[in-house]
Structures are given as structure tokens and as C-alpha cells.
């Protein structure tokens, strides 16, 4: 009488396809996270902005030649801006505006209404819906047509 042995099935041939399936599953999860996160796109027309970069450099050099200084502060729901000439004095005939924008997130930019608050000083209410970092872009033009544009970061607590 002989005993017939039943062959044992080995799992070794299945390890390779299971490993590949695991790699594909992890890649799909990572792809899902990547598609749901921020795209990293800073501008929609990078080529056109790149072509006009020389003009931006010229504008920046002309602005630096003015010697104007900008200080932006946020405190107790107000934005305080000091924009002075090279000697620290007031710039006559200045028209100034400010836009607040989040460096991250998808909140719409906010226009900040400014009014004169003393010599070379401007202030306006700023109570955004989100705390954290905000970029305040100040644009100013004097009576002679000189333009100044700069961005400063403030933290809303």
C-alpha cells in the first residue's frame, strides 16, 4: 500500500504579481493626493510674462532710483502704511492703493481702502476672514507720474 502525497501549492510564484499590485495601489493613492492638492501654478501666462521681463527690470530700476521707502504693519484690524521719499519726508500729490492677497490658499484678493493718517502715513481697516500670512501690494503714483509698487508680508493673528 502506498500513500499518495498531494502536491503543496507554493506562494512564491504569487509574490511578484502581488508586489506589483502593491506598487500600483500606492502610486494610485499618491496620484490622488497630487490631483487634490495645489497645482503649484503661479501664473497662467508664464511665457508672456517672461517676454516682458526686461520691461519689469527697467521699471524696478526706475523705482529704486526714486529712493522711496515702504513700511507696512498690521495691528488691531488696521493696516498702517508709511511711504516716504529718500529723505524720509512726505511725497506730494501721492495717490495710493493696496491689495491684500494670500500667498497660499484660494481666497480672493481684497482691496484695502486707505486714507491719509499723517505725513507720509496711510491707514485703512483690514479684517480678513482668514488668519495667517497676507501679502500687501502697495501701488503709489505721485503728481509727476512716478510709480512705485512693492509687496510686503504681514501676519494676521
Structure description:
The protein has 157 residues and is of the alpha+beta class. It has a domain at 68-156: Sandwich (Immunoglobulin-like). The chain has three helices and eight strands. The protein has helices at 12-36, 46-51, 53-66; strands spanning 69-75, 78-84, 95-101, 110-112, 115-118, 121-125, 132-141, 147-156. The strands form two sheets. Strands 1-2-6-5 form a four-stranded antiparallel beta sheet, with no helix packed on it. A four-stranded antiparallel beta sheet has the order 4-3-7-8, with no helix packed on it. The longest helix is centred in the first third of the chain and has 25 residues, at 12-36. The relative contact order is 0.15. The model has no long low-confidence stretch (mean pLDDT 90).
Amino acid at each position: 500500500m502506498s500513500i499518495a502525497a498531494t502536491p503543496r501549492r507554493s506562494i512564491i510564484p504569487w509574490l511578484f504579481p502581488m508586489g506589483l499590485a502593491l506598487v500600483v495601489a500606492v502610486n494610485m493613492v499618491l496620484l490622488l493626493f497630487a490631483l487634490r492638492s495645489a497645482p503649484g501654478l503661479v501664473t497662467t501666462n508664464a511665457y508672456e510674462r517672461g517676454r516682458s521681463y526686461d520691461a519689469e527690470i527697467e521699471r524696478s530700476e526706475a523705482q529704486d532710483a526714486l529712493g522711496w521707502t515702504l513700511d507696512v504693519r498690521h495691528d488691531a484690524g488696521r493696516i498702517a502704511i508709511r511711504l516716504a521719499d529718500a529723505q524720509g519726508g512726505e511725497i506730494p500729490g501721492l495717490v495710493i492703493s493696496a491689495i491684500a492677497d494670500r500667498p497660499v490658499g484660494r481666497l480672493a484678493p481684497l482691496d484695502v481702502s486707505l486714507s491719509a493718517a499723517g505725513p507720509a502715513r496711510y491707514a485703512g481697516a483690514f479684517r480678513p476672514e482668514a488668519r495667517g500670512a497676507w501679502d500687501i501690494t502697495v501701488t503709489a503714483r505721485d503728481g509727476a507720474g512716478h510709480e512705485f509698487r512693492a509687496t510686503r508680508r504681514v501676519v494676521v493673528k
